[in-house]
Design a protein that fits this description.
With 373 residues, the protein is an alpha/beta fold. Helix content is 47%, strand content 13%. The structure holds S-adenosylmethionine.
Length: 373
């Protein structure tokens, strides 16, 4: 599915688009063709050979790992997936960097037309984010390479589209559309006045909230200044008035009981467990009585040793050290520990707008705060 070409999206020459299309095809090949082939190879050849030698199939992710790391197909798969990831950022990064002199003033002009942007140059960037280039993205989400920088935001917006080979939809809003729909469907009694999107990134998942709740004031926050600078400009050129700020989702600047709805999309899997607990606690503080939080991310960790081993691939090879922390949360108990009632915790399945299979590993978890506003 082609990406919608809005004025903040980096412009590519014919050759640059062709390179991006090649990377998207390579990603699709590794995920849609090679990944299932690898599973068949494990089930039909590697696991039976192990069982013949040991009297039982590999019973833990570590055993699966020992088997898989001896397989040329797995080594080839790993090389290709990691290589494609590096190629993606290198290729698109070059294009975005070249266009910063055009994109930066264009963004400033767009931001002046609608919405707001609040930056906090003194915001401490937590070590768990600063210490790694998450997803192998150079500089992560927060590094600034020039004045008024938006490199990371522009790169992420184009990069995530190529990464998902278009499956997130023309505006990369697959998850945000589902999260907004879940709020409407599950909580028809809530008529939100204020909604907050934590870890909003380039705003891909924030805009669907404005579409679903046109009466509400929508806020988005992110640690990275380049992300919110870009998000605010992108929202403005797409005709949405949204309030963006640079802040830590675990310790925000908003007063108690500020929001009716708080969401996050693909945030928790990037945090270590103590930070996730701080985010849940902050949500409880920020919600009005009767308000609701929804976190769209990994839903638990697979028990099957093969699936568990494959799920940890990104942790070992793609600079995503904390993915397992979000997968192993005991969500009801963790929510109860920060003030929600365990009975008010829920899990919902919301069909994806474009890519059904995403929901096999992810889902929406949340909790409603007791009381009425
Ligand atoms: C994978 S991106 C998802 C972006 C967006 N939610 C979306 O759906 O496209 C994760 C985002 O979370 C942000 N993030 C990570 N830790 C954060 C924190 N403690 N506070 C605020 N944002 C954070 C990152 O900067 C990044 O932009």
């Amino acid at each position: 599915m082609p990406q919608f070409r809005h004025p903040m999206l980096v412009e590519e020459t014919h050759d640059e688009r062709s390179r991006a299309a090649f990377i998207a095809s390579l990603r699709e090949y590794t995920m849609s063709d090679l990944y299932p082939k690898l599973r068949r190879h494990y089930e039909q050849t590697l696991a039976p050979a192990y069982a013949a030698a040991h009297g039982k199939p590999p019973e833990s992710p570590d055993r699966v790992r020992a088997v898989m790391e001896g397989s040329q197909l797995y080594t080839g798969y790993s090389l290709l997936v990691r290589g494609t990831q590096e190629l993606l950022w290198d290729t698109l990064g070059e294009v975005v960097e070249k266009q910063l002199p055009i994109l930066i003033p264009r963004a400033a002009a767009a931001r002046a037309t609608r919405g707001t942007l609040e930056l906090n140059p003194r915001l401490p960037i937590p070590a768990y984010t600063a210490a790694v280039d998450i997803h192998v993205m150079p500089g992560g989400f927060h590094t600034e390479i020039t004045d008024d920088d938006l490199f990371a935001g522009a790169l992420y917006d184009r990069g995530v589209h190529v990464f998902a080979f278009g499956g997130l939809g023309p505006l990369n809003d697959e998850m945000g559309v589902a999260t907004a729909a879940a709020v409407r469907r599950q909580f028809p009694d809530i008529k939100p006045g204020k909604i907050l999107d934590l870890g909003c990134g380039a705003g891909n998942s924030t805009l669907p909230l404005a579409d679903a709740f046109p009466e509400a004031e929508v806020y988005g926050l992110d640690l990275g200044a380049p992300m919110v600078r870009y998000a605010a400009a992108r929202a403005a050129v797409l005709g949405k008035s949204i309030h963006f700020s640079q802040a830590d989702a675990a310790h925000t600047h908003f007063p108690d009981a500020s929001f009716d709805v708080i969401v996050s999309n693909l945030l928790l899997h990037e945090m270590p467990r103590p930070a996730i607990m701080d985010v849940l606690r902050e949500c409880h503080r920020l919600l009005r009585p009767g308000g609701v939080m929804l976190h769209h991310d990994l839903l638990g960790w697979p028990e099957d040793p093969y699936d568990s081993f494959m799920m940890s691939w990104t942790t070992r090879h793609n600079n995503e050290p904390y993915e397992r922390a979000s997968g192993t949360l005991n969500f009801p108990k963790d929510c109860a520990a920060v003030g929600f009632a365990e009975e008010d915790v829920f899990v919902v399945a919301e069909p994806g707008a474009y890519m059904e299979e995403v929901y096999q590993v992810s889902g929406i978890r949340g909790a409603r705060k007791r009381g009425t506003s």
